[in-house]
Amino acid sequence: MTESLLAVRGLGKHFVSGNETVPVIGKLSFTLGQGQSLALTGRSGSGKSTLLNLLCGLERPDAGTIVICGEVFEAGGTAALRTAKAWSALRRQRIGVVFQEANLMPALSLLENVRFRARLAGRDPAKSEDWLTRLDIGDLAQRYPDEVSGGQRQRAALAMAFAMEPALILADEPTGSLDRHTSDDVTRVLFDLQARYGCGLILATHDAELAAGCQQHLDLGHSGAV
Amino acid sequence: MRALLSLSTFFFLPRALLSHYRRHPLQLVALGSMIVLATMLWTGVSHLTSQARASLDQSEQAVAERQQVVRSDGRALAVEDFVTLRLAGLCVMPWLEVTPDTGSRIVGIDPLAAHCFSVGAGASQALDQPLDGNPFVDIYSAASMSARESRLYLLTPEATQASDLPPAYRLKTFSTSPDTGELGDSFLLNLEALGVLVLLITALLLRSVYLLGLAQRRDSFALLHRFGVSPGRVQGWLVLEILVLALLCVVPGVWLGRWLAAGLGSGFGQALDGLFDIPLYAGQGQGWLVPVLVMLAVVVIACLGDLLLLRFRERFTLARPTLAAMATTLLVAGLVLAWLSPALLWVFVAVALVFAGAGWLTPAAVAHLAHWRAARSRDPLAQWRFRELAVLVRRLTLPLVALQFALAMVLAVQALVTTFEDTFDRWLAQRLEAAYYIEVPAGADGRKAAEWLTSQQAKVPGLQWHRVIRGQAQLEAQGNAGSQQVDVFTVAPVGSLIRAWNLLDTADEPWGALASGEGAMINEQLARRQRLDVGDSLYLTLGDQAQVVPVLGVYPDYGRPVGEVLLNAEFLPDDFNIRFESFSVTPGEFGIAPVTDALVEIWGVDALTFRDNSSIRELATGVFDQTFALTRAMTLLTLILAASALLMMGWVFFSTRVWYFRLLVVWGMQQREVAGQLLRLALMLTGGVAVLALPLGIWLTWVLVHRINPLAFGWSLPMAVYPIFWVELAILSLVIGVSIAALMRRQLGKPAIAPASASALNGGER
Amino acid sequence: MIRNLGFALVLSLSLFAGCSGDTGDEGFAGLAGLESKEDASSGTDRPYLQPDPGDRLTFPADFGPHPQHRIEWWYLTANLETEAGEPLGLQWTQFRQALEPRAANAPAPASTSWPLQAAWMAHGAVSWKGQHYFAEKLARGDIGHAGATALPLQVWLDNWRLSGNADNSRWQLQANGEDWSYDLTLSIEGAPVAHGEEGFSAKSASGEGSMYFSLVDIAISGEVRLDGEVLPVTGKGWFDREWSSQLLKTGQKGWDWFALHLDGGDKLMAFRLRDDSGSFLSGTWLPAGGDPVPLRPEQLNLKELERDNDVPVRWLLRIPDYQVELQLNVPPGDYLNRGLYPYWESPVSVSGSHTGEGYMELTGYKLR
Predict the structure, then answer these.
(1) How far is CA A76 from each of CA A83, B670, B671, C19, rounded to the nearest angstrom?
(2) Closest CA in chain B for residue A125
């Protein structure tokens, strides 16, 4: 067993609707080792996106602890401001997030997007062009997001995520809006790079085939420890 | 089957189209309220302008009809004089001015005697005044008042000739307050120009809100198209929709505008009333039909103009550089035309060209500049910011241009109004240079009074005076054979009162030279017409004597339409025909009473015609202050409308953009940092607009003051700039920017939804 | 004659209201107001005097003003002829409207106080060859430029003036407008003719009325100037004096009035007051050389024969008791006096049982 990248203990999140408390994630515990991949599955509304938000600090849990990249976040524990700052720093340098779409700034070219992301993470922007080449879209570097196809956009999004040299990539249905062929293509590239650069990957999907490519599997349909 | 299909689309189509507004009620509210506000504003301004013009016309007519009959022996008029003149068949009306022991001046008139004023010369509305004590009452009430002072005048229509009068009477002009001449007219012309600008700005705002809604409905239009509804059909329904909406909103807008104008206008009316001493009820100005139709046309053209010209547009889609070149050409052509144009109409055309050019060029230029800066930027955040700015400018083109125009207009109106205020002050100062003005009665000798005043000079501390003699002279025009008649205005001694005059152009020591009789001064009108400059020679014939005198200075006349020469009265030839003589006196320590008493004795008359200039000055200044405040309020309102439109548009625009700002948070920037970026972006946007509005506003001021006024009225206003006001406007723009940023920040706190589909990425986003 | 009451009303209302206002529905709306004002003023120290059937005429005093009556007029119409034999009609009228009653023997207020007890109005008109010239003048009373005296007879407003000689047998009349003027000498023959009951002329069945007398034998000569052309004229005139404080009842809409010189020397005055519920007719038959006969309403029969632009221009007037059946014809032309309150004043020619000429006045029609 490799050293743990992420450890989740008793994570809970609920929403308040009127007088009622609706649990979204209840008592969830799991760990993810360095360079490992985890597939998150479950029906729509089962809390996949919420969990990803919790794991990158865009939302705060109501219960439990998250230990990520050596930093410990306890529900209600530390001062909120410090917590927000720490999460921001993590997202900036260690956690890459890939959404289903609209991962790119529309006013920047593909290359500028990658550079922007690398620069934010404190990485050398000079390597940005290499990342695009590695993802087979080097010739589209000067194009704007609206000038390329959906698959090419998602490749660019991956280039951005890897250009920041992350410890963990959170991908929320990254191929959800692509056709089968393109989707397979993008998935293959994602797993290749993840393996090559040894970063962790949590992939939220309801595509069983895609989930099968991951080393671990967490079905939120019946939440609990893995 | 086909019939069934078309039947279903007939019911389904309007519902499908309207469902957009059911889902986005705020947009409907925004569009509706924009139409209401725009209509209100424009109706208010135009209503006010037309009301002011009507009032002014009326009062000018009233003033034009003022001519009075006086006794040749200089004695005060009495009822017997009225009876004598009426029995002789002359149309005269009694005008009894009474200053009651308490309260303000009252004028008693006889409406029955006034009836003859309306015969022949057309109806005389001016005399059809309510007798409600403001200031008119029936002459019986005025005569029975306990009064400090009371004086009877007999007015006669302009048509009355001196030859109609019995021998013991003569004609004289009658005015109760200084005639502002064309100063008021000029102001109104500028106010009308303001109305046109307001209309343009409102059209831009309407268009921006409407196009935004249209863009958001594009998807549903595409869907309808897929269902087999022809685009023409959809357009037809859109036209109907906007017409209904316009009608629903224009009518309350016009009502509100009239209400606004009535509220503000009572002040304006009073201003003009006070100025001409006549309560003016100019009526309701234009009716309902004109403003409703104008606004309907504006709404339809602003919203559907390109829809109606769609084919045309498709055929002539212009490349961006071509457009920029065209806009630049328009701008340059407008600037050149405004500078060189010999006619008023062309100046207005030039203003239209410049605004069109600037309106087109500004957003393109700002976007271009932003791209240029982005390309040179090493900091990716700065690069992103400039790119976002370029998007913002393009997406918010219309409200931004509207704001730019509004800012430019406010700037120009502020400069104009301040200039007018200033000019008006100087104009008053020139005409009312002394504290009192005393007419020399017919048959009295002004020289004796001058001798007496000279003898008092040493005894009375603070006494300042000069004698004014008016008449006419022949001026030989240079270069051609003809000569023309000019008014001659002479004073003596050339003392401190007249030396306070402001000169447009001057030789060295002009007053000293005038005092020693070594030259003359001319008014602006004469200088312009005869192309005379300081140092040129005037060939004057005064009485029988021909003289050649150099021009020592040019003095402003603020709208006096006749050429005038100012000379030292001591050097007038004996045979000079004195048409009018008066004294301007600042009495110094002992007040005016000893002076008037002495003059009554010297001239052997019952009473003097004299005027207390300070009360006139007070009245006139108060009156204009009100008018100017009103104008400022109207322009400020326009600015607020433009600003709130930009706010609203900015808010709607950011709601489509908020996802990308959230991306920054996802990428590890703190909320605070993102908000900071947004603030910088918004400030760049509105600050940039303010900076670009500045040259346009200054240029507009210059055109109003230096081109339109001289072409329309033959005299120029001094051009002044007010940098402190620029700073105020800049701060206001920045406040608008901060407000936009604050609105954006609120949205940033809420969870964002990713743009709905890939098709949403259609170039408009960058 | 019951003329132009509306004018005076409009005038007085405009004075009180302080604006010219609008003339409402031809001025008659004010009539009811007059009655109520009558009631109000009857409570004051010095009410308006009301003529009643017992009142008698006094000469020459009744040629002068009656300041304690609300309204009165001096009214001359004339059927003249130019040297070329062309008919020329002419009118001169001066009205007095009291705003405040004053006893006949009370002194007039000082002119220096610009009093407002009475308003005067004068109308002058000339009708020739289908052309109609008209002018109107207004003045307040007691100032000096407008007024009237009984002996010698003087009635004046500005430079318009009717003035009689010491024995009141010869009058001079001058008036002028924009493009016309006249200067006439009037020879008064015959005694004043009292209408109605020795001067009390009833205006309704319920007894309201006015004091009314006429001079019907007036020979006129003089000069009329029209558009710079001087026309020597001769002919005959008809002069009316009438005063009252209340003439029309509420509901009366207007009147038709005729004064006719018939060729045999007979003369006739007749008027009709129009009412929603019918009309009131009255008149005086003046046989040549005989005594005037007051005509009762049922003795007169008046019928419109033809209208031109809503103005009745042809009439049938019958007095069966005297074998009179007259057709009255207005010569072509527009005879509307377009003053503060427009009314129709035109010469008429007479045919039928008698021939002759005269004058007609119409008020209360929709005149344009």
Answers:
(1) 10, 20, 20, 83
(2) B380
Q: What are the φ/ψ torsions at residue A22 (nearest 5 degrees)?
A: -105, 110
CB of B619 less than 8 A from some CB of C: no
Q: What are the domain boundaries of chain C? A: 5-362
DSSP character string of B137-185: EEHHHHHTS-EEEEEEEEEE-TT--GGGS-TTEEEEE--SS---THHHH
Of A85, A105, A125, the CB nearest to B384: A105
Q: C174 to chain B: nearest residue by CA?
A: B89
For residue A144, the chain B residues in CB contact (below 8 A) are 763, 766
E strand or H helix at A132: helix A128-134
Task: Confirm if C96 and C71 have CB atoms less than 8 A apart.
Answer: yes
Size of interface A-B (CB pairs under 8 A): 81
**Cα B718 from chain centre:** 15
Chain A: nearest CA to B649, how far in angstroms? 19
Could you give the CA distance from residue B564 to residue B523 in angstroms, rounded to a whole number? 6
Which of C18, C19, C140 is facing B112, going by the closest CB pair?
Answer: C140
Q: How far apart are CA A37 and CA B107, in angstroms?
A: 99
Q: How far is A111 from chain B (nearest CA, A)?
A: 11
Alpha-carbon gap: B88 to the closest alpha carbon of chain C (Å): 6
CATH of the domain at A105: 3.40.50.300
Percent of chain C's residues with pLDDT above 90 = 70
For C126, list phi and psi in degrees, rounded to 5.
-130, 135
In chain A, the number of structural domains is: 1
- Smallest Cβ–Cβ distance between C139 and the set B89, B112, B144 belongs to B112
Interchain contact C14–B (C-beta under 8 A) = yes
Averaged pLDDT, groups of 10, chain B, 766 residues long: 49 71 76 81 74 57 66 86 95 86 76 79 46 75 81 87 90 61 62 74 77 72 77 78 86 84 61 42 57 82 68 53 84 90 84 89 87 86 90 83 85 78 72 80 84 87 88 74 77 85 85 90 83 88 86 79 84 84 86 86 81 69 62 71 77 77 88 89 89 90 82 70 85 88 78 48 50
CA distance B644 to chain A (A): 26
State the DSSP code for B671.
H
Closest partner residue to B143 (CB to CB) among C11, C19, C114 is C114
Task: Please name the member of B89, B116, B131 whose beta carbon is closest to the beta carbon of C18.
Answer: B131
Whether chain A has a CB inside 8 Å of the CB on B668: the answer is yes
Is residue B753 less than 8 Å (CB to CB) from chain A? no
Closest residue in B to C156 (Cα) is B87
Report residue A209 as tokens.
């085939």
Residues in chain A with CB shorter than 8 Å from the CB of B672 are none
**CATH code for the part of the protein at C5-362:** 2.40.370.10
Kindly list the residues from chain B whose CB atom is less than 8 angstroms away from the CB atom of residue A108: 383-384, 387, 766
Instruction: Give the per-residue SS3 of B331-386.
Output: HHHHHHHHHHCCCHHHHHHHHHHHHHHHHHHHHHHHHHHHHHHHHCCCCHHHHHHH
Q: What is the pLDDT of residues A82-115, one digit of tens each?
A: 688 888 899 999 999 988 878 889 889 999 999 9
Query: Do residues B678 and B745 make contact, with C-beta atoms less than 8 angstroms apart?
Result: yes
- Is B128 in Cβ contact with C19 (below 8 Å)? yes
Q: What is the ipTM of this complex?
A: 0.91
Q: Could you read off the pLDDT of C98-132 as tens digits, one per residue?
A: 999 999 888 999 999 999 999 999 999 999 999 99
Whole-number Å distance between alpha carbons of A101 and C152: 114
Beta bridge partners of B522: B554, B565
Query: Reading across the β-sheet that carries A20-33, which strands appear in turn?
Result: A20-33, A4-17, A63-68, A71-74
In contact, C184 and C164? CB cutoff 8 Å: no
Is residue A1 assigned to a domain? no
In which domain, by residue range, is A202 found?
Answer: 33-61+81-222
